[in-house]
Each structure stands twice: as structure tokens, then as C-alpha cells.
Design goal:
This protein is α/β, with parallel strands linked by helices and 413 residues long. It is 33% helix and 11% strand. Strand 5 (184-190), helix 7 and strand 6 (212-217) form a beta-alpha-beta unit. The protein is globular. Bound molecules: iron/sulfur cluster (SF4) and FE2/S2 (inorganic) cluster.
Length: 413
């Protein structure tokens, strides 16, 4: 699985507020019209959690969904049509590995026929050229390939992804994408096992003919939180990498666009995660659960609707999980009275929950959070210690069972 970066979600069609008084008795057409007026920009379709790679920073939940719970072809096609009716513009076909679904071409065709812009987020190792041609024919607009390192260091890349030969196959597939004239983005999750090669990774993306490269420092929730001590770069390493990105942006202007995502623990202010909760994106899991964020299930106590039970528009507008942290009314101090509250929306709810036990707290990535210094210290300490072995992403995980592992707290450091 790729690291799906919340930084991708930068804007929405319309700002969203809470449901207004007197709106309780609307019929389904009114709901659909209103949802469309307030529509999110994108839908992340996690078609499956199956994946041949085992990246230790995967943004999928630690409890992966099983193949026998996945939505059928017809159900995914209905999701695509409903997304278009809702006013969504982009579909990000993700996973796990979306090409593990045999019906991917049918799903893409339905999405494209409905007028949606389709982006395939893939690890690429399963793709065959013929399949890519069929996807293009079906209307696929864009391909995003995740890499673990540059092709100069294939052993390192394959070790990180837990898949031998993956690095070489990705290069071949990237070549096919360009030969077929499709736009290509390279997504490179960055951590202490490749942070020393950011320049090499950017140059490799240029060599592959990518239009865009994402230097995406790993975000520490889900599998990455389990592997934080193994993945966290030092602040010095991050600073060096940031300077390299800055210089490359200048040097490569007009050749490639370079996006970057800062590691939260070293940030001054948090990112507006998901563009604001319930504001920019809908995530649908393999079994059809509708989430405001791909990691939202890590927040215990939230109830999620399923596309099998309710129309997408209704879930988007009225779903309990979407309403819970939408807008700014739910905020506590210091966010509540902060001038940045409608810029970053208090940061990441999942990270706030993972690190403080309350998703309504200020994201500890924020320097104004009362616990920011403690977590920055954890990052400093862990990043200077010998990294532990990876806990690879696989059902149940390697090593201790996920449920048996301690949740890290500042006192652990
Ligand atoms: Fe953002 Fe809250 Fe920090 Fe203000 S206090 S910068 S709103 S996270
Ligand atoms: Fe940031 Fe869920 S990962 S809100």
C-alpha cells in the first residue's frame, strides 16, 4: 500500500458547516442537492486491503479487512455513480493494491463514464502492460506509483517494501505509463531508511518522466505508529532533506513539480489533515464503510455508516462520524480561540487520539499543544536510537499481535 498523504487534500468545492436547524425533514432529492452544493473534492476508494507489499508505514488500519468482506463490482460501481451525483470530482483508486481486484477495469470505466477524474494509486508490481492499456481505454486519467527508494538502491527499496524485485518492476511499469502518454506521479514515503537519498529519489522521478514527485515524510499513525522507532528520522536529517527539496524545486522548475509533506513531530503547526475533517474527502473501505479519513477507524467510539445501508450523500451530510469533528464547534482550547483554527482545523484527529486518547484535543504536532514538547522529545530520542526491526504490514503483523502491543506514550521514551 502506498502512504496516502492527507496533504493531497488541499481544497474543497465549498466550506462545510454543521447541519442547520430546520433541516431535519428533507427528502432524498433535497439531501442530494444540498450534498452536491457542499461536495467534497475527492473520494478515496480502498478497493481491497490485499497487497503484495508489506510496507511498515502503510496507512491502512492495523486490522486489515478480509477479501470475503469486499464490496462487489456492482456495489463499487454504484459508489462511483453516487460520487458523481454528489458532485465529487476525483476518484482515487487505492488499497491495499487496487490492481489485485480483477474488476478494476469495470470500476474505472463506470467512474470515467460518470465524468469522474480517476487516479490509480498503485504499488505497480502486479500490473501487466495489457491491463494498463485496458485501464487507459476504460478512461483512467492518471497513475501514481509509490516507490521505496531510487533504482540505484534496489535492495534497500525491496527490503522496505518486503517484496523482492519490486523496485525493478516499478521502473518497468513507470515506463509503460509514459509510453501510453498518461500523466505520472511518483510517491516516495520518506523515513530514516531513505532520507539520506532524497536527492537521488527526486532525480529518479525525473528520469522516470514523472510530472510530479511527492516527498512525503511518513505520517505516524496506523502501521507507521507501530514502526515509529524504526522509521523516525532525526531532526537534522529532516532539515537536510528539506533543504534538498527546496533547492530541487528551484533547479527543476518546469521539469517536475515537487510536493513535500513534513514529518509532524518536527512541525511548528500541523497540516490541515484531510483538508479538515468531513470537509474535503470521503474514504470508502473495502467492505463499504464510509469514513471521513482513511485512519478514522483508529478512533474508538465513532460509528461509521456503510454504503450498503445508506446513500453516500446522506452519509456525507448527516453521518455521525462526519458531523463529530466537522467545522470548529467541537474544538477545545488552544484551538478554539486560535487564529489558525480555520487554516489547519486543529491538525489531525487520528493523531490527536493516538497520542492523547482524545480526538478533540489539539494535534500534538502543533507547538501550541500542551503536550507538543513531550512528543517532540519522543521523536528526538527514538530517532537517535538503533532502529528496531520493522513490523511488516500483513494480517496480524509480524512479531507481537497488534492488540498486544503497548500504545506509545511520552513516558515510554
Ligand atoms: Fe492549529 Fe489548534 Fe495549533 Fe491553533 S492551536 S495552530 S488551530 S492546531
Ligand atoms: Fe488525520 Fe485521520 S489521519 S484526521
Amino acid at each position: 500500500m502506498n502512504e496516502y498523504s492527507p496533504a493531497h487534500i488541499k481544497e474543497t468545492a465549498m466550506p462545510l458547516g454543521a447541519r442547520q436547524p430546520g433541516e431535519e425533514d428533507k427528502d432524498s432529492t433535497e439531501i442530494a442537492d444540498e450534498a452536491c452544493a457542499r461536495a467534497p473534492i475527492g473520494l478515496l476508494a480502498e478497493l481491497t486491503h490485499r497487497c503484495p507489499l508489506q510496507c511498515p508505514y502503510c496507512s491502512n488500519p492495523v486490522e486489515l479487512e478480509r477479501v470475503n468482506t469486499e464490496l462487489t463490482t456492482e456495489e463499487w460501481q454504484s459508489v462511483m455513480r453516487q460520487a458523481a451525483e454528489l458532485g465529487i470530482l476525483q476518484i482515487h483508486l487505492s488499497g491495499g493494491e487496487p490492481t489485485a481486484r480483477r474488476d478494476l477495469v469495470d470500476i474505472v470505466k463506470t467512474a470515467a463514464d460518470a465524468g469522474l477524474y480517476t487516479n490509480l494509486i498503485t504499488a505497480a508490481v502486479l500490473l501487466k502492460r495489457e491491463q494498463l492499456e485496458q485501464l487507459k481505454e476504460a478512461g483512467l486519467d492518471h497513475v501514481q506509483i509509490s516507490i521505496q527508494d531510487s533504482d540505484a538502491r534496489p535492495e534497500n527499496a525491496d527490503r522496505i517494501g518486503g517484496y523482492k524485485g519490486g523496485s525493478a518492476k516499478k521502473k518497468i511499469v513507470a515506463g509503460w505509463v509514459r509510453e501510453l502518454g498518461m500523466p505520472l506521479t511518483i510517491n516516495a514515503p520518506i523515513h530514516r531508511h531513505n532520507v539520506d537519498n532524497v536527492e537521488g529519489i527526486i532525480n529518479y522521478a525525473v528520469e522516470l518522466g514523472a510530472d510530479r514527485v511527492e516527498i512525503a515524510h511518513v505520517q505516524y499513525y496506523a502501521w507507521a505508529l507501530k514502526n515509529r522507532a524504526a522509521l523516525m528520522p532525526t531532526r537534522e536529517q529532516f532539515n537536510v532533506a528539506a533543504k534538498i527539496v527546496e533547492k530541487a524545486r528551484e533547479d527543476l522548475k518546469g521539469i517536475i513539480v515537487i510536493d513535500s509533506v513534513v514529518p509532524d513531530y518536527y512541525a511548528k503547526y500541523p497540516k490541515p489533515c484531510m483538508g479538515g475533517w468531513g470537509r474535503g474527502i470521503i474514504n470508502v473501505t473495502p467492505s463499504g464503510r464510509v469514513l471521513p479519513c482513511h485512519a478514522a477507524e483508529s478512533i474508538t467510539g465513532l460509528e461509521f455508516d456503510n454504503v450498503k445501508d445508506k446513500p453516500l450523500a446522506e452519509v456525507w451530510l448527516e453521518g455521525e462520524a462526519f458531523q463529530k469533528y466537522r467545522g470548529t464547534d467541537w474544538m477545545k482550547e488552544p484551538c478554539r480561540s486560535c487564529s489558525r483554527r480555520e487554516i489547519d482545523y486543529g491538525g489531525c484527529r487520528c493523531q490527536a487520539f493516538a497520542l492523547t486518547g482524545d480526538a478533540a484535543n489539539t494535534d500534538p504536532a502543533c507547538s501550541l499543544s500542551p503536550v507538543h514538547a513531550q512528543w517532540a522529545k519522543v521523536a528526538e530520542v527514538e530517532s537517535h536510537e538503533t532502529p528496531p526491526e520493522f513490523i511488516y504490514r500483513r494480517p496480524g503483523g509480524a512479531g507481537p499481535k497488534p492488540s498486544a502491543q503497548k500504545k506509545p506514550v511520552p513516558s515510554d521514551a
